[in-house]
Amino acid sequence: MMKDSNQKLCVIGSLNTDLVAQLEDFPKPGQTIIGNTFHTTFGGKGGNQAVALGKLGADVIMAGKVGRDTYGDNYLAHLKACGVQSAVAREEGISSGVAVIEVDKTAQNHIVVIPGANGLVDRAYIDEILPEVSGCSVFLLQLEIPLETVEYTAKRLHDMGKTVILDPAPAVVLPDELLENVDYITPNETETEIVSGMSIKNEDDLKRAAAHLLEKGVKNVIAKAGGNGAYIINKKEFTHVPPYKVNPVDTTAAGDSFNAGLAFGLSRGLSLKDSVKIGNAVGGLATEAMGAQTAMPNADAVRACMNENLF
């Protein structure tokens, strides 16, 4: 790939609306209390990655499902406002995905996630939308839609010669049939332990865990290390890519932002190392403000953070 090739991207995944209530103390069973504040935010790992790409100015399309309700209406309008094209389907008789979140005065939380329409992203839907998104070259997948759908989608995309990036979150043990169709897997440390079945305490442990995934057929392991940047691990290299200096206040969706930056770089024909550097910058900048999608940076902010004009 040549620099500035500007290949199109597609995110296939979840779309959730977070309903957040802040209160002094959690209610006891049967108790009604008065809360302090309430707000709604757009989330879901799929939606987060698509919006992060839209804010970077990428040519990106979002695929997934929402219900025929106000939450679905609002999310589709939000995607459009963020520059994200939509292949999102509307489902009758089921809600859009929501997360009901209570946060008390000590910052502890109770969270109830209702997948809703996300749980209906099935093989038939993938077969339906693949012709629409076949012009995309880079695809981002996560694990907030049914695992069997993710496995099926990765196989279809691999057979079509597409680049597949898998964010293995929420982490579960993954079938070999999925791993062998993944070009880039992007776990954080905890997720690496779960998907590899190995404890990670140092770089040697990370090498062994990554080698296990490579043996299963993954082409590249991009291990996210939070404030320590990220690692590129494949059969040819083990490279640490250091982070950029940021002032973090909220790490919500930093991992989703990293994935968007990585995919953005790859779609521009940049080297893997430069793409990971962009991932580090996007992910780091997303921690400098509260919230998920509201904190995601634009391309100018990323260039300023990197002090490089890679794109």
**What global shape is seen?**
globular
For the secondary structure, the number of strands is 15
- State mean pLDDT (0 to 100 scale): 95
Which stretches are low in confidence, meaning pLDDT under 50 for 5 or more residues running? none
**Helix-strand string:** EEEHEEHEEEEHEHEHEHHEEEHHH
Task: Write structural notes for this entry.
With 311 residues, the protein is α/β, with parallel strands linked by helices. Helix content is 35%, strand content 21%. The strands form 3 sheets. The chain has a 9-stranded mixed sheet with strand order 6-4-1-10-11-12-13-14-15, sandwiched between helices. A 4-stranded mixed sheet has the order 3-2-8-9. Strands 5-7 form a two-stranded parallel sheet. A hairpin with a 4-residue loop joins strand 14 and strand 15. Helix 6 crosses helix 7. The longest helix has 14 residues. It is globular. It starts with 8 loop residues before the first strand and ends in a 5-residue tail after the last helix. The mean pLDDT is 95.
Which features does this protein show?
311 residues; alpha/beta; nine-stranded mixed sheet; four-stranded mixed sheet; 10 helices; globular
Brief sketch in words of this structure:
35% of the residues lie in helices and 21% in strands. The protein is α/β, with parallel strands linked by helices.
